[in-house]
TrEMBL record:
Keywords: Cytoplasm, Lipid-binding, Transport. The keyword Transport applies. It comes from Calonectris borealis (Cory's shearwater). Residues 8-25 form the Cytosolic fatty-acid binding proteins domain. This is FABP6 protein. Its main location: cytoplasm. PANTHER family: FATTY ACID BINDING PROTEIN. Belongs to the calycin superfamily. Fatty-acid binding protein (FABP) family. PROSITE patterns: FABP. The keyword Cytoplasm applies. Transmembrane segments: none annotated.
Length: 131
């Protein structure tokens, strides 16, 4: 694919294995409730290998991760923990190793498909393009 076009705005459409996954990575029950079927809007700005990846949560909370493919960056997990990761591009997918899970993102049929895997539990989130 060469340069995958990630840029755009995507709205949460559905997920699989949410409860198993967030329990496995140790999210607190209030965060688990907050995130369940949450209409997260993911906004991706891409400039070559530079990305700004923002998640807008209902109620106005946002999380932004800014990174460059192949360079170490300061990132934040689902639970709000800060860490450093080097984000890679493999077969048109963005791949990042979070402290206790591996996260991939790809554009598939115009949808943003994100997969997080932790000790055998695979969490899949699909978002549809809205802009």
């Amino acid at each position: 694919h060469g340069n995958m076009a990630f840029a755009g705005k995507y709205e949460f459409e559905g997920d699989e294995n949410y409860d198993d996954f967030v329990t496995k990575i140790g999210l607190s029950s209030d965060k688990i409730e907050m995130g369940r079927n949450c209409k997260i809007v993911t906004e991706v700005v891409q400039n070559g290998n530079d990305f700004t990846w923002t998640q807008h949560f209902p109620g106005g909370r946002t999380t932004t991760n800014t990174f460059t493919i192949g360079k170490e960056a300061d990132m934040e997990t689902m639970g709000g923990k800060k860490f450093k990761a080097t984000v890679k591009m493999e077969d048109g997918k963005i791949v990042a190793d979070f402290p206790n899970y591996r996260h991939t993102a790809e554009i598939c049929g115009g949808k943003l498909v994100e997969i997080s895997a932790a000790s055998g539990v695979v969490y899949k989130r699909t978002s549809k393009r809205i802009a």
